[in-house]
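Incident log, support desk, overnight shift.

02:14 A customer reports that sequence design results differ from what the structure should imply. Their input is reproduced verbatim below. On-call engineer (initials T.W.) acknowledged and began investigating.
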């Protein structure tokens, strides 16, 4: 099964609206990957990804604008074991496209989200999708195991300024995200299942949203079962602890004065407790044919007698 991150990227590409801004999605990808660079020879764009669907998607956007890869490299990642694909694009057509995307200004790569591709709602959504394709990941609990993994959505950005701008962009859709620094990168992140759900819904990723809801429902059911089990164990522990204290009091009275020292009603309770060590208060009251409150009162009197003998 694909990771949840891969599922999101696959659905972004497969459900990308035909009338959506390809320039905005390209801008989002290029900026979070810091893929645009320039020198005296001109500008270049590097597209690096482990996701084959993403590579094909971006390639189709570029080729439709007359931009083709000038070099291709595939390396296997030693940690993940996945192939990392790297494509480099150059040429005049590329420079024209970068200008249309707002990725270069005054002869330099732009570090801010381009207004021309993020001024309308559809363009903002496309930019966020591109940013996730370039630097996004999302982890959720595994429904097939009892993993304690929580919910975590993030987009890795090269600068804090860009991370803050993406947070502002998400806020336009009432999606609250935060930033943090990690190993020289700046991360836009969301840890709330509800907010991640809202984001997937906003991006129109219904298949991934359904998977998230299914996982959340499974986790809630499991947590409720665990709480019920823990409550039962806690009640057993309390029953055992109370029984031990009661028996210790009875044993003390027996050794010091004998059970005959107790009045008949208390003596019956003492004998009943000794004969039913594991019974709860409700069970012992039923055995003795008295109410639970009456039983508690008599046991408290026995405990008080034992306490007086200790002094």
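02:41 Re-run completed on a clean worker. Output:
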């Amino acid at each position: 099964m694909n990771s949840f991150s891969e599922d999101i990227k696959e659905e972004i590409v497969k459900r990308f609206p035909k009338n959506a801004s390809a320039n905005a999605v390209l801008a989002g990808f290029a900026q979070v990957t810091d893929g645009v660079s320039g020198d005296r020879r001109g500008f270049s764009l590097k597209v690096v990804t482990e996701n084959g669907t993403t590579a094909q998607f971006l390639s189709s956007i570029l080729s439709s604008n007359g931009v083709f890869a000038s070099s291709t490299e595939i390396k296997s990642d030693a940690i993940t074991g996945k192939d990392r694909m790297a494509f480099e694009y150059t040429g005049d057509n590329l420079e024209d496209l970068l200008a249309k995307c707002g990725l270069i200004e005054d002869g330099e790569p732009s570090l801010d989200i381009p207004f021309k591709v993020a001024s309308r709602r559809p363009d903002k959504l496309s930019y966020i999708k591109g940013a996730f394709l370039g630097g996004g990941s999302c982890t959720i609990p595994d429904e097939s195991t009892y993993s304690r993994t929580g919910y975590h959505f993030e987009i890795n950005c090269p600068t804090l300024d860009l991370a803050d701008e993406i947070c502002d962009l998400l806020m336009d859709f009432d999606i609250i995200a935060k930033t943090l620094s990690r190993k020289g990168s700046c991360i836009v992140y969301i840890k709330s299942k509800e907010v991640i759900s809202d984001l997937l819904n906003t991006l129109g990723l219904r298949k991934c949203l359904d998977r998230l809801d299914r996982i959340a429902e499974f986790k809630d059911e499991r947590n409720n079962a665990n709480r019920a089990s823990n409550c039962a164990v806690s009640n057993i522990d309390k029953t055992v602890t109370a029984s031990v204290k009661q028996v210790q009091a009875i044993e003390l009275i027996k050794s010091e004065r004998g059970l005959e020292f107790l009045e008949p009603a208390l003596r019956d309770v003492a004998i009943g407790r000794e004969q039913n060590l594991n019974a709860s208060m409700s069970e012992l009251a039923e055995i003795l044919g008295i109410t639970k409150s009456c039983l508690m009162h008599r046991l408290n009197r026995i405990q008080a007698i034992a306490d007086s003998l200790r002094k």
